[in-house]
Design goal:
CATH topology of chain B: Aconitase, domain 4
Largest sheet of chain B: 7 strands, mixed, barrel
CATH architecture of the largest domain in chain A: 2-Layer Sandwich
Strand content of chain B: 15-25%
Distance between the termini of chain A: 47 Å
Number of strands of chain A: 18
Strand content of chain A: 15-25%
Number of helices of chain B: 6
CATH class of the largest domain in chain A: Alpha Beta
Shape of chain B: globular
Oligomer: heterodimer
Shape of chain A: globular
Order of helices and strands of chain B: EHHEHEHEEEEHH
Structural class of chain A: alpha/beta
CATH architecture of chain B: Alpha-Beta Barrel
C-alpha cells in the first residue's frame, strides 16, 4: 500500500512491513540528542530506572550538545553542564560537545546536522521540541521529554504513535525578499498553533526543491509551532551532498509515495507570499510586514536554531550593508561554525562581521541559545521590561525572552534587518536590490 | 489509579497555555530528578501566566490549593520541557481537564504519571470559575461542577489507557515485558 515518508521510516524502524496512522509501535532509535536543560534530568531518569551502574544502549548513538545556558554566571547552569561532562566521561560518549573547549559547538539543532549526526531515513529523538528541525534532511525527528529520553538512553527504543500526514504542496517561485521563515509563518497563520497537532507536516513541491538545506531547516524547525509531531522533506541531491560531506556513516534514504493516503493536502503558490511577522503572543498571529509599519521597535534579535544560521546572517548582511540600525540589534550566531562563517563570508569585499559592526549592531555574542528562551537574568539579549522586539527566533509567547511585559514579533532575517534600520516594522523589499 | 475519584478546587485557564507560562525558562536550571529541586519547581508552577490571573500558588506557599486545572484548547503547547507536567504534579495538581493538548505535554504527562491529562468535549473553561469545586469520576468518565451541580462527559483515554494505568512509560514497559522488572 502507498505510504508517506514518515510512515515508511517508522515501519522500517519498527521492523514491520507497514504501519498506519494511529498505530502505537516500538521503534529502534538511530540517534538521541540532549542538552544542558533537559540532559541532567534525562540522566537522572536513566539512573533511577536502570541503576547507578547502568550503561547507555549505544554510545555512538547519543549526542550531548550543551547550548541553552552557557554564558551565564548562574551556578546551577554550570552544575548542569558539569553533570553532562561527568556522564559523558563515565559512559565514554564520543559526541559530547563541551563548552569552554575546542569541541564546543553551540545550538544543538544547527550543530547536530553540521556534525553529520542527521541522516536521511533515520529515527532521531531529542529532548527538545525543535528536534523536528532535522526532518529537513529526510529523517523522522521529534521532541520528547526527559522520561522518554531516559528510556531511550537505556533501551534504544521508544513507543511511538504513527502520525497522520498533512502535506503542504508549495509551488511557484519565491519573490525577492520572501524567504523560508515567511513560508512557515504563513502556514502556521493559516492552520493555527494547533492546526497540525499529532500530525506529520510534509513539505513538498518545486518551491521546497528550490530551497537550500538551511532554509528547509527553518521550515521544519517551526512544525512544532503548529503542534506538528514532525516536519519532513524528502531527501534530494542537495540533501545527500550535504550529509555525505559531513559523515562517512552509511544511511539508506526513504522516499514516500505521492499517492499515499493523507489527512489533508494544502496547496500554495509561493509567488503570492509576502514578508511577514507573527505578532505577540502566538506564532500564528500572521500579518504582512508592510501593514505593521506603525509598530515602533526597541530591539532586533538575530539568532537561534530558527534564525541564527549562516544563511540567516547573510540575509541580514545584505540589508544592513552600508546602512545603520536605529535600535539595539543583538546578533547570536547559532554555532561556532556559523561564527567562523561571519568572519569568512563577505559581500563586496566586506566580511559580515565588518558589515554588522559598521551598521552599529551590538558586538556579536558567542554561540548559544541566548535570549531566544530568556534564560537566566544575565543572558545576552534577555528582556527585562516592556521592550518591543523583532526577532528571527521561533516563539513569541508571553515572557518568552525573559519579561512578561515585552512584546515579541517573529520575522525573517531580512525583515528583522530592515526593521532594525527603520526602527519600526519594515518590509525588506524596499531595501533589497532587485 | 484509573478508578480514582479526584475532588478538589479548580483553576481555570483558556486556550494555548504554553510551557513558558506553565514554567518560565529561568527555572529550567532546576533538575526534576533532584528531590529538593522537584519541590522548588512545584513552587513556580504557572508562574508565567499574565499578572491579571489570580495566584496559582499563594504567597509563602510551595503548593497550590487547586487539585484540578480546567483549560481550553492546546494546553501545554511549545517546549518539550518535562518540567511542565512535573511542576504541576509537584505543586499538588492531580489532573488537567482540557479540550485538547499539545502532543509533547500530553505525552510527558502520561510518561511521567505526574498529572492525568484528561480530554473533554465541552468547553469547560467557560463553565467553571476558578475556585469552584469539581469531582472527577475517572471510572465513569464524568466531571461534575459541585457548585453548579452540572455534569459533563470526559473523553476516555483510548490507546494510552494502559500506560496511564501502569503509572507511566517505565511501568508500562515493565508490565509488558519490554524491559525487565526493577531489582
Amino acid at each position: 500500500m502507498a505510504a508517506t515518508i514518515t510512515e515508511k521510516i517508522l515501519a522500517r524502524a519498527a521492523g514491520v512491513q507497514s504501519v498506519s496512522p494511529g498505530d502505537n509501535i516500538w521503534v529502534n532509535v538511530d540517534m538521541l540528542l540532549t542538552h544542558d536543560v533537559c540532559g541532567p534530568g534525562t540522566i537522572g531518569v536513566f539512573k533511577r530506572e536502570f541503576g547507578e551502574d547502568a550503561r547507555v544502549w549505544d554510545p555512538e548513538k547519543i549526542a550531548i550538545i550543551p547550548d541553552h545556558y552557557i554564558y551565564t554566571a548562574d551556578e546551577k547552569a554550570h552544575r548542569n553542564v558539569d553533570t553532562l561532562r561527568a556522564f559523558a566521561k563515565e559512559q565514554d560518549l564520543p559526541y559530547f560537545y563541551d563548552p569552554g573547549t575546542a569541541t564546543y559547538k553551540g545550538v544543538c539543532h544547527v550543530a547536530l546536522p553540521e556534525a553529520g549526526h542527521v541522516r536521511p531515513g533515520e529515527v532521531l529523538l531529542g529532548t527538545d521540541s525543535h528536534t523536528c528541525t532535522h526532518g529537513a534532511l529526510g529523517a523522522f525527528a521529534t521532541g520528547i521529554g526527559n522520561t522518554d529520553g531516559g528510556f531511550v538512553m537505556g533501551t534504544g527504543k521508544l513507543l511511538v504513535k504513527v502520525p497522520k500526514t498533512l502535506r503542504f504542496v508549495l509551488e511557484g517561485e519565491l519573490p525577492v525578499g520572501v524567504v523560508a521563515k515567511d513560508i512557515i509563518l504563513r502556514i502556521i497563520g493559516d492552520i493555527g498553533v494547533d492546526g497540525a497537532t499529532y500530525c506529520a507536516m510534509e513539505f513538498y513541491g518545486s518551491a521546497i526543491d528550490a530551497l537550500s538545506i538551511e532554509e528547509r531547516m527553518t521550515i521544519c524547525n517551526m512544525a512544532i509551532e503548529a503542534g506538528g509531531k514532525n516536519g519532513i522533506i524528502a531527501p534530494d541531491e542537495k540533501t545527500l551532498a550535504y550529509v555525505k560531506a559531513r559523515t562517512d556513516k552509511p544511511f539508506e534514504p526513504v522516499y514516500g509515495d505521492r499517492d499515499a493516503p493523507l489527512e489533508a493536502e494544502y496547496h500554495y503558490d509561493v509567488a503570492t507570499f509576502v514578508p511577514c511577522v507573527a505578532e505577540p503572543h502566538l506564532p500564528s498571529h500572521y500579518a504582512p510586514a508592510v501593514e505593521r509599519g506603525t509598530v515602533k521597535l526597541d530591539r532586533a534579535y538575530i539568532g537561534s536554531c530558527t534564525g541564527g544560521k549562516l544563511e540567516d546572517f547573510m540575509m541580514a548582511a545584505r540589508v544592513l550593508k552600508g546602512r545603520r540600525v536605529m535600535i539595539d540589534t543583538f546578533l547570536v550566531p547559532a554555532t561556532v561554525e556559523v561564527a567562523e562563517g561571519l568572519l569568512r563570508e563577505s559581500i563586496d569585499g566586506k566580511s559580515l562581521v565588518e558589515i554588522f559592526s559598521e551598521a552599529g549592531c551590538l558586538p556579536i555574542a558567542p554561540p548559544s541559545c541566548a535570549a531566544c528562551l530568556g534564560g537566566p537574568e544575565d543572558t545576552f539579549g534577555h528582556a527585562h521590561g516592556n521592550e518591543v522586539i523583532i526577532s528571527t527566533t521561533n516563539r513569541n509567547f508571553l515572557g518568552r525572552m525573559g519579561s512578561k511585559l515585552a512584546s515579541i514579533y517573529l520575522a525573517s532575517p531580512l525583515t528583522v534587518a530592515a526593521s532594525a534600520v527603520a526602527g519600526t516594522i519594515a518590509d525588506p523589499r524596499e531595501l533589497l536590490d532587485a | 489509579m484509573a478508578n480514582e475519584i479526584i475532588k478538589g478546587s479548580v483553576y481555570v485557564v483558556t486556550d494555548n497555555i504554553d510551557t513558558d507560562q506553565i514554567i518560565p525558562a529561568k527555572y529550567l536550571n532546576l533538575v526534576p530528578t533532584i528531590p529538593e529541586e522537584y519541590a522548588k519547581l512545584g513552587s513556580y508552577a504557572m508562574a508565567g501566566l499574565p499578572e491579571s490571573f489570580s495566584a496559582f500558588i499563594l504567597p509563602g506557599e510551595s503548593k497550590t490549593p487547586y487539585a484540578i486545572i480546567v483549560a481550553g484548547r492546546n494546553f501545554g503547547c511549545g517546549s518539550s520541557r518535562e518540567h511542565a507536567p512535573i511542576c504541576l504534579g509537584a505543586a499538588g495538581v492531580e489532573a488537567v481537564v482540557a479540550e485538547s493538548y499539545a502532543r509533547i505535554f500530553f505525552r510527558n504527562a502520561v510518561a511521567t504519571g505526574e498529572v492525568f491529562p484528561i480530554e473533554v468535549k465541552a468547553r469547560l473553561c467557560d463553565l467553571f470559575n476558578t475556585g469552584d469545586v469539581a469531582e472527577l469520576d475517572m471510572s465513569n468518565n464524568r466531571i461534575t461542577n459541585v457548585n453548579s451541580c452540572e455534569s459533563y462527559e470526559l473523553i476516555p483515554p483510548g490507546a494510552v489507557a494502559p500506560v496511564i494505568a501502569a503509572g507511566g512509560i517505565f511501568g508500562y514497559a515493565r508490565a509488558t515485558g519490554m524491559i525487565k522488572q526493577k531489582d
